[in-house]
Amino acid sequence: MTPIELSEIQAYLLNDLKEMGYSRYYLLKVKDATAAKKLIASIAGSISNAAVSAQDTSLNIGFTNTGLIALGLNEVNMHSFSREFREGMVTPHRQRLLGDFDSSDPSKWQWGGPANERVDVMLLIFGKNESGVDNLFQQLKQELDAGFHTVHILNNKPLPNDREHFGFRDGISQPVIKGSGIKPAGNNNDINPGEFLMGYENEYDIFPASPLLLDDKNQGNKESLAADVSGSSFKDLGRNGTYFVLRQLEQDVDGFWKFLKQQTNAPDTKTINEESTMLAAKMMGRWPNGAPLVTNPDNENDPANKSDENNFSYYKSDPEGEKCPFGSHIRRMNPRDQFEESPPGISLKLTRRHRIIRRVRSYGEDFIGSAENHKPNGEVGLLFGCFMANISKQFEFLQYTWGNSPKFKRLYDDPDPIIGVRECPAAGVKQNFTIPQKTVNKVIPDLQSFVTVKGGAYFFFPSVSVLKFLGTL
Q1: In Å, how far are 12, 340, 436 from 343, measured between CA atoms?
Q2: Distance from C-alpha of 203 to C-alpha of 339, rounded to nearest angstrom
Q3: Given a cut of 70, is residue 425 above it in pLDDT?
Q4: 294-307: per-residue pLDDT in tens?
């Protein structure tokens, strides 16, 4: 396997930076291309890379398609980037794929939508505290203000106790990039680097499509660029780079738990809370503490089942979905060894081709919801981010084919109960959650949406060398 060039890769891909207790994403618009390129050139050498252990602060940067154009990358070279990245997140086609309708319609977004100012660049600053982020920003502010206009600022932090606001442990089943130096994850989670990095072989044993410098006339100093690993005569703009999807997701925690409680027929508050928690676990596929239903079907704290929370499979342990329903969120997003009707070996192989590296931060109150406590103060939500080398086959596939589609496995009217439910479905469209049982399946009808998209964009995270090149355009 080709050694991974860690010093070229932006740090956030390989390090979730949980130790950084505060972070701020600056969404920027280029107002002076010359000054903007001067800033990019000046920070290229101080961008946090994957070869260096996290320090008190960390700096990373990503570009939208409009950002690269604004900096001067010409049309020929822009067309070597993936279609998804070039089109962006808010075309009518992408809107249908991602299910961004009703309250999540891009026209209603706070940023990234057609009614908002254009986002060209995202500057990500992480720090162990807020003052560290402020100090680093102040060091950059003069050059930043000369080249960019700040469109929006996203203040965020790690998930409180690793739990998202509905109350569930998050980020358990993360893939590990082979050759990255990170401890192997096992259980089908060790993935070829080309699934997340351009310039390396992916799970198809080929190099993923990578943007190339097809026209080098008046396009800056290309000396820092590597040659195309596929053997063409062009320089590679994608090597050691990756795509990053960012979605701001507001969570209606109170509505979520009230809906679950309405589905119970329990006679007292204690039992209502227990049954609604069980239903929430069925929808998620794990208990709030992260224990998988496959190994802990009845009790999240069952002392008899203290196995690794990620070391389980479905084919032998739960082939009929009676422990962890087929339609649950985690079973849809990572089917493991039971991908549709494929045999286990093929299922594992197919699943590996649709993984993402999740980078999730929270905003709003440090609130962990539960059946007993589900009224946060003010808006709470997630900045859902994920890295991949192929937006279509990874993020969009997960959202459209496994998340939004009502036909999954043996189901026909069941979207993902967490991320796939339409707020206002078309007349006659059913949105159910089916819980398989030995006799008659239990069906929860009329699912409701409790997640609203408030903004989003597709970004290109270039390598350090490509970042230096962009500063010379």
Answers
A1: 35, 9, 21
A2: 16
A3: yes
A4: 999 998 887 656 56
